[in-house]
Automatic annotation (TrEMBL):
Keywords, sorted A to Z: Oxidoreductase
Native organism: Hansschlegelia beijingensis
Pfam short name (any one): Ldh_2
Name of protein: (2R)-3-sulfolactate dehydrogenase (NADP+)
UniProt cross-references to PANTHER family, sorted A to Z: MALATE DEHYDROGENASE, OXIDOREDUCTASE-RELATED
Organism lineage string: Bacteria, Pseudomonadati, Pseudomonadota, Alphaproteobacteria, Hyphomicrobiales
Listed Gene3D superfamilies: 1.10.1530.10, Hypothetical oxidoreductase yiak, domain 2
GO-annotated molecular function: oxidoreductase activity
Length: 334
């Protein structure tokens, strides 16, 4: 296993991206997101994505030299065109702009179209919560789940995320996909040559499988069965139908370099707590204490924060082969 500091990992990832057509600002944005996810223990959204992103840059499936463009069609709405680039620069733009709009209007939304894989969905909402806002994110992904009772994928795993500030503490962050697990976990298992647990996915014939390759050709098992499918439909309508992005069934895969840009979408809604009640953050903290104070109970994200603190102290540990692969893409090996 190799060990890198967070700064070394960000530098390595950014170098791999710039060596293959990404501008320095875009590469830095992507590197922050991927290394941040790796540090949080979300490896399916971390370093394992670099080779796929590079392949997509080379194929023109992700455009590395474009910049997102924002307009204000209404006072409380920020419309962002990601221009078929990576999602992270567009998400950064939303996080930078939404606090001022939300404080002026009480509530603000950013729609992102012609976008790409948004990675760990909790990152943008956590950043907004660090700025004192309550935030929600909805993202659609390429087709991976069948409607309840069907076999053909028409819905994405469609992550949702929520964050709210706590006075003097890290925000509460909820980040989950509407499949039983994120599809990135299956991709990471395939890269490691490991089976997946039964119950995560179905093969192309609708049968349960522990083979990650068969799972990636089939469909994901929904979280909560029919309820998860209903929520995925809701996210599809918010993140793609509302924003003008492509639906899951129209989008190309995030997992390979085949086809054109995926063109998926994200919707972020930010609330200024002060516009709703004077003591909202303290009320958030009261509920957090009621949960965290119970023996054996923990708030969502506690493990993520522990992983992050350890990574900041000790650096990231990753397979030698993965680091060598990224180094080769950056032109640093041999």
């Amino acid at each position: 296993m190799a060990r890198l500091s967070l700064a070394e990992a960000r530098d390595l990832v950014a170098a791999a991206l710039t060596a293959n057509g990404a501008s320095q600002p875009n590469a830095a944005s992507v590197a922050r997101a991927l290394v941040g996810a790796e540090a949080d223990g979300l490896k399916g959204h971390g370093l394992s994505r670099v080779a796929t992103y590079v392949a997509q840059l080379r194929a023109g499936k992700a455009l590395g030299d474009v910049a997102p463009v924002a307009t204000r069609p209404r006072p409380g709405v920020l419309a962002i065109d990601a221009a078929h680039g990576f999602a992270y620069p567009a998400l950064d733009l939303a996080v930078d702009a939404l606090p001022a709009i939300a404080r002026e209007q009480g509530i603000a939304a950013a729609s992102i179209s012609r976008s790409h894989h948004c990675g760990a969905a909790g990152q943008p909402v956590e950043a907004l919560a660090d700025a004192g806002l309550v935030a929600m994110l909805f993202a659609n992904t390429p087709a991976a789940m069948a409607p309840w009772g069907g076999r053909t994928a028409v819905l994405g795993t469609n992550p949702i995320a929520f964050a709210c500030p706590l006075p003097g503490e890290a925000p509460i962050v909820v980040d989950l996909s509407l499949s039983r697990v994120a599809r990135g976990n299956i991709m990471a298992a395939r890269q490691r040559g490991e089976p997946i647990p039964e119950g995560w996915a179905l093969d192309a014939e609708g049968r349960p499988t522990t083979d990650p390759a068969a799972a990636l050709k089939g469909t994901m098992a929904p979280l909560g069965d029919a309820k998860g499918v209903a929520l995925a439909l809701m996210v599809e309508l918010l993140a793609a139908g509302l924003t003008g992005a492509l639906y899951a069934g129209e989008a190309s895969s995030f997992l390979d370099a085949e086809g054109g840009p995926p063109g998926t979408g994200q919707l972020i809604i930010a609330f200024d707590p002060a516009a709703f009640s004077a003591g909202a953050p303290e009320r958030f903290a009261a509920l957090a204490r009621a949960i965290d104070g119970q023996e054996g109970a923990r708030l969502p994200g506690a493990r993520r924060l522990a992983n992050r603190e350890r990574a900041a102290r000790e650096g990231l540990e990753a397979p030698d082969a993965l680091i060598a692969e990224i180094g080769s893409l950056a032109g640093r090996n041999g």
